[in-house]
Amino acid sequence: MVSLTLTRDEFKLKQAFTISRGSRTVAQVLTVQLTEGEHWGRGECYPYARYGESLDSVREQIRAVESDIVSGASRDTLQQLMPAGAARNAIDCALWDLEAKRSGVPVWKLAGLSAPEAITTAYTLSLDTPEAMRTAAAEHANRPLLKIKLGSAGDLDRLRAIRLGAPDATLIVDANEGWSATDYDELAPVMLELGVSMVEQPLPQSSDEALAGRARPLPVCADESCHDVASLQALVGKYDMINIKLDKTGGLTEALALKSAALELGFDVMVGCMVTSSLAMAPAMLVAQGARVADLDGPLLLAEDRMPAVEYHSSVMQPAPAELWG
């Protein structure tokens, strides 16, 4: 018999994290632990208001399927029981972890993957004044890849300041739906000159059609517009890349399926995260193997993390210890 324990955990951030939709100083997550005899597996999720989620609503979704999970529902059954989203992510990852602990076989092998290798992650600079962002860029100028949160007036001033602070880093930009199509047309050539290699979700999801057939000199990556395999086909001809996040796909199971489907359709793949702990990074790292961009810096933004934690050597992320997950 499997038992399900659901807890709310809070992790302080090193400093306020700001995007175009707001700021936060703590990461509040929900953790599912599935226990069967002496074995247990865990999964973590981050309810995201942008997708209509809250800690309470996700908690209710998890409790609604608790009896099914306790009765032995499989990962495949879970995909039918719940929609894509944070609640399913926590349970799906906990089921993978439980199976690994129970069988003594790591998740990567259970999933038919190669053993994970260390990867280089982007490091995110949150939205701030140009002066503050230049200072932050200079502090992290040794990192090879910086992700810049933009999406409001003065974005070019911010980007120029960052380039001065970190002259050698590759830059990627996340506008968090903060631009219009005209903004993109005007900003893209300048950003290319400043060494930006990609922009993530420049337009609101509702404006995707404006990208259809549009010249995209600066590659465009879908984030809010891409959740699972079902959302993928509508992005063809509008986006060049997709950002896979397990809190959007509803877990590792769908994330792996989405990666495979995206590559078959010719999309480049980015694997991202919310600001969450090492427990959330561990399964995402399996998806990030071979991806064009890994953006799994959540623990680097925290003042505290789970133990044991994923190790980062500057921007190089190591595979998760089995005691943590997988």
Written description of the protein model:
With 326 residues, the chain is an alpha/beta fold. 33% of the residues lie in helices and 23% in strands. It is built from eleven helices and 14 strands. The chain has helices spanning 55-64, 66-70, 75-81, 86-103, 107-110, 130-139, 155-165, 181-193, 246-249, 252-264, 278-288, and strands at residues 3-19, 22-36, 39-45, 119-120, 123-125, 145-149, 170-174, 196-200, 220-222, 241-244, 268-271, 293-294, 312-313, 316-317. The strands form three sheets. It has an eight-stranded parallel sheet. A three-stranded antiparallel sheet has the order 1-2-3. Strand 6, helix 7 and strand 7 form a beta-alpha-beta unit. Helix 1 (55-64) crosses helix 4 and helix 6 packs parallel to helix 7. The longest helix has 18 residues, at 86-103. It is globular. The model has no long low-confidence stretch (mean pLDDT 96).
Number of helices: 11
Strand order, main sheet: write it out.
Answer: 5-6-7-8-9-10-11-12
Estimate the helix proportion, in percent: 25-40%
Q: How big is the Rg?
A: 19 Å
Strand content: 15-25%
Distance between the termini: 21 Å
Order of helices and strands: EEEHHHHHEEHEHEHEEEHHEHEEE
General form: globular
Count of DSSP E strands?
14
Please describe the biggest sheet, giving its number of strands, its sense, and whether it closes into a barrel: 8 strands, parallel
Average pLDDT level: 96
Low-confidence stretches: none
Structural class: alpha/beta
